[in-house]
């Protein structure tokens, strides 16, 4: 993961968070709570365009990004943020947990997502993991990622149809595959086991379990990026 | 639609005017009063111009214009009596306006429907009969019948067409209204969801009575989220069910449901059997793993089979204690799960690890 050098300084330097949400109550509430928990609030934004501007000015470590913004889709904002500042980490915040949207954002490069109804302690833990580039894997997300690998491996998407036309047009490069170990780890995450529990059951180190989980996400993101580049070239987009 | 029908009436009138003109030019030599024939042609041409202009705009389609239209046609038919020779009229010569006289009948039918069409057809027929000095020959009778049919049938067709058009318009309006309502509902649902999520997460942090409020808000939040997830589903092929939409509603503060992003389709009977087994497995969790135990449901679509795992974080038990588990009634429940699945051609398997809870894995093959 890209967060290695950060980890050493994490204790000394407070993590800077940009909160992007179109609901003022949520935005203010999350800002207050995260500030209480010891994070520095780099700024708040109400839509995607504002988020891009403010993140350019304030250079946050983590962008806590609402999935449903009025102007752009969460995946678009994620891509925009990461293109401008590859070192920042995007953590999605979602009220609805709309599966395809969550998956789109994660394949676009977000390190994970948290439901808005999560306990605040969970939110704090998630922002902390995100700040060092550690994927924030809920069991729901593990289920989605498992499903996505199977869809990509299947003929035109396992047995189920691809959701959007854009996807099916893009899927021609070899599908990424999970190793047996990765599948095993993901399935355990999806069944609610914690990393220490998984490392105990599989007799692996917690670090190795984390790496396996991280790899599953990285492979999907790389595949997605390659597909976008291919799509852009085939359609003459610079 | 109405405008198009009026255009058809005008087209009919112009075509029949040309036809009448050809007849007048051909026959004027044998008329008793050829000048009368030319006068009628002039009137027909002028009146055609007036009605084409009038009927083009809705304001011109007034009752008195249409009535005048009928009277002009009737008068021109009767004028045949003086213009033609009696011998030719008796021999069945066409009237001077000939088929042109049916144009006002069509106009009546378009304006007033089948009965108006029929009545105007009758009026023109009466004029046809009045034109003859004696009882007419068979050909005029069939002309009368044709006029009546034309008036009635075209009136009926026009009404039918207009009603179909109104129906389509109404359906489109309803559809637009439904979409607008849906859009509004989405906004409201989202706001409610945001607030419930906030109350649920803050309440938990505050503790005490607030925690209880938070828990209640959390339950409603999960229910609403499941409802919204279900609403956004596309139409399914007939006879198939999405396993996700059956399992999703189980999600609450203690039960986490993980699914793929794409539909997991199974025949309705199989899907219902599978979700029944999940219900039994979750009941099992509540009964044996304790009220505080959490549970995770994972739905996986492996193409050739669908796998649903239900895991709890209760105490669990060693495999060697299966007999003990059976005594506790735990195995009984698992038997009922196995039974349910066998009915739909699936298998169930129960595993337990001390400290790591109990897991039931349900598999159903796809044929």
Ordered list of secondary-structure elements with their pairings:
The complex is a heterodimer of chains A (238) and B (367).
Chain A: H1 4-9, E1 16-20, H2 24-36, E2 40-45, H3 48-58, E3 62-66, H4 74-84, E4 89-94, H5 99-108, E5 112-115, H6 120-131, H7 139-153, H8 165-170, H9 180-190, H10 195-202, H11 206-234
Parallel strand pairs in A: 1-2, 1-3, 3-4, 4-5
Helix pairs in contact in A: 3-4, 4-5, 5-7, 7-9, 9-11, 10-11
Chain B: H1 2-27, H2 34-56, H3 63-83, H4 86-90, H5 103-112, H6 114-131, H7 138-206, H8 209-231, E1 240-242, H9 243-247, E2 255-258, E3 265-267, H10 268-288, E4 295-301, E5 305-312, H11 322-327, H12 330-343, E6 346-353, E7 357-365
Parallel strand pairs in B: 2-4
Antiparallel strand pairs in B: 1-3, 4-5, 5-7, 6-7
Helix pairs in contact in B: 1-2, 1-5, 2-3, 3-5, 3-6, 5-6, 5-7, 6-7, 7-8, 10-12
Strand numbers in spatial order across the main sheet of chain B: 2-4-5-7-6
**Shape annotation of chain B:** rod-shaped
Total E-strand runs of chain A: 5
Biggest interface and residues each: A-B, 49 and 46 residues
Element-level helix/strand string of chain B: HHHHHHHHEHEEHEEHHEE
- How would you classify the helix and strand content of chain A by structural class? alpha/beta
Mean pLDDT metric of chain B: 83
């Amino acid at each position: 993961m890209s967060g290695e050098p950060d980890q050493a300084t994490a204790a000394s330097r407070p993590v800077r968070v940009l909160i992007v949400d179109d609901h003022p109550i949520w935005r203010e509430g999350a800002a207050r709570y995260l500030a209480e928990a010891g994070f520095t609030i780099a700024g708040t934004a109400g839509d995607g365009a504002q988020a891009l501007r403010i993140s350019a000015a304030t250079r946050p470590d983590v962008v806590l990004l609402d999935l449903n913004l009025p102007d752009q889709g969460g995946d678009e904002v994620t891509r925009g943020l990461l293109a401008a500042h590859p070192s920042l980490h995007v953590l999605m915040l979602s009220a609805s947990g709309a599966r395809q949207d969550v998956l789109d954002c994660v394949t676009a490069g977000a390190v994970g997502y948290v439901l808005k109804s999560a306990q605040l302690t969970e939110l704090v833990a998630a922002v902390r993991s995100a700040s060092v580039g550690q994927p924030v894997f809920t069991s729901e997300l593990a289920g989605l990622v498992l499903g996505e690998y199977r869809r990509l491996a299947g003929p035109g998407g396992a047995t189920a149809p691809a959701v959007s036309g854009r996807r099916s047009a893009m899927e021609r490069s070899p599908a990424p595959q999970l190793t047996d170990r990765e599948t095993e780890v993901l399935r355990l995450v999806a069944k609610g086991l914690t990393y220490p529990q998984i490392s105990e059951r599989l007799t692996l180190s917690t670090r190795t379990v984390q790496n396996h989980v991280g790899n599953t996400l990285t492979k999907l993101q790389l595949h997605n990026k390659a597909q976008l580049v291919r799509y852009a070239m085939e359609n003459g987009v610079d | 639609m109405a405008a198009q029908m009026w255009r058809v009436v005008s087209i009919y009138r112009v075509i029949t005017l040309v036809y009448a003109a050809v007849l007048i030019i051909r026959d004027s030599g044998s008329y008793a009063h050829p000048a009368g024939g030319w006068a009628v042609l002039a009137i027909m041409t002028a009146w055609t111009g007036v009605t084409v202009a009038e009927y083009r705009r809705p304001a011109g389609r007034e009752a008195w214009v249409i009535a005048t239209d009928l009277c002009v046609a009737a008068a021109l038919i009767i004028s045949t009596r003086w213009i033609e020779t009696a011998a030719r009229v008796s021999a069945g010569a066409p009237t001077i306006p000939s088929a042109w006289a049916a144009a006002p009948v069509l106009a009546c039918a378009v304006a007033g429907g089948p009965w108006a069409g029929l009545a105007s057809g009758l009026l023109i027929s009466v004029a046809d009969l009045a034109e003859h000095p004696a009882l007419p020959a068979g050909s005029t009778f069939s002309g009368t019948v044709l006029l009546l049919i034309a008036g009635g049938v075209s009136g009926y067709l026009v009404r039918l067409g207009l009603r179909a058009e109104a129906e389509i318009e109404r359906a489109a309006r309803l559809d637009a209204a439904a979409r607008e309502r849906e859009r509004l509902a989405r906004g409201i649902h989202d706001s409610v969801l945001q607030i419930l999520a906030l109350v649920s997460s803050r309440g938990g942090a505050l503790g005490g009575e607030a925690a209880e409020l938070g828990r209640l808000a959390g339950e409603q939040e999960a229910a609403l989220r499941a409802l919204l997830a279900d609403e956004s589903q596309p139409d399914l092929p007939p006879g198939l069910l999405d396993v996700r939409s059956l399992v999703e509603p189980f999600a609450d503060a203690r039960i986490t449901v993980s699914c793929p992003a794409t539909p997991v389709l199974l025949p309705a009977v199989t899907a219902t059997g599978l979700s029944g087994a999940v219900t039994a497995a979750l009941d099992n969790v509540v009964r044996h793993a304790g009220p505080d135990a959490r549970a995770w449901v994972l739905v996986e679509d492996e193409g050739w089979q669908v796998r649903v795992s239900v895991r709890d974080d209760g105490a669990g038990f060693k495999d060697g204690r299966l007999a003990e588990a059976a005594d506790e009634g735990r195995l009984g429940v698992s038997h009922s799960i196995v039974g349910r699945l066998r009915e739909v051609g699936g298998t169930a398997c129960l595993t337990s690890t001390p400290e790591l809870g109990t897991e039931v894995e349900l598999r159903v093959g796809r044929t």
